[in-house]
Inverse folding.
């Protein structure tokens, strides 16, 4: 079984796997439109994590993990809790295209997608509003800023040819807000 990750799964799968491949799926755009009240946020301050939006001309880069034998049940149980129960994601099968030049046919992979029907779905917002929400959110897996920056770093280092305007615009908005927050905190401490 192959499992495609396009958010925190790219750097922290949390399950045993046999192999992994960087690549993409077609027909989807990655969006920070899913709320998170457990891993990267709280009930009072939900974080923003990614989901996929159907988009015929787009492709989303990430990592596909191959799980075999005893790894299958353990990984699916773990992901069901992490993504479906705690995250509100549904599963879908997609065609994964490995980055390798000598790659064979696309691989059928399982992917977790949060739809607008789930209670944690936040939907669209401006890059500035998403960045502002990310800055103030933290959950049991860490700060929401870490989530955004690790995802941006993954894209830069493993998929430098790929474009993800939504992701990098939010990162840029976050970086432009942070010096203001730092300055404000410094000013408060001095007074």
């Amino acid at each position: 079984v192959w499992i495609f990750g396009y958010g925190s799964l790219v750097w922290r799968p949390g399950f045993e796997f046999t192999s992994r491949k960087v690549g993409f799926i077609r027909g989807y755009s990655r969006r920070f439109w899913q709320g998170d009240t457990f891993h990267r946020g709280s009930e009072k301050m939900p974080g923003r994590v990614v989901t996929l939006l159907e988009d015929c001309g787009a492709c989303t880069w990430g990592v596909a993990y191959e799980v075999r034998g005893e790894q299958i049940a353990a990984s699916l149980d773990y992901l069901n809790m992490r993504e479906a129960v705690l995250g509100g994601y549904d599963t879908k099968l997609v065609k994964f295209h490995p980055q390798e030049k000598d790659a064979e046919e696309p691989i059928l992979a399982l992917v977790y997608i949060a739809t607008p029907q789930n209670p944690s779905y936040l939907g669209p917002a401006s890059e500035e509003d998403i960045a502002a929400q990310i800055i103030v959110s933290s959950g049991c897996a860490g700060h929401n800023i870490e989530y955004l920056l690790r995802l941006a770093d993954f894209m830069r280092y493993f998929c430098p040819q790929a474009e993800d305007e939504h992701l990098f615009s939010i990162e840029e908005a976050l970086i432009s807000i942070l010096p203001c927050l730092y300055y404000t905190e410094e000013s408060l401490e001095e007074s």
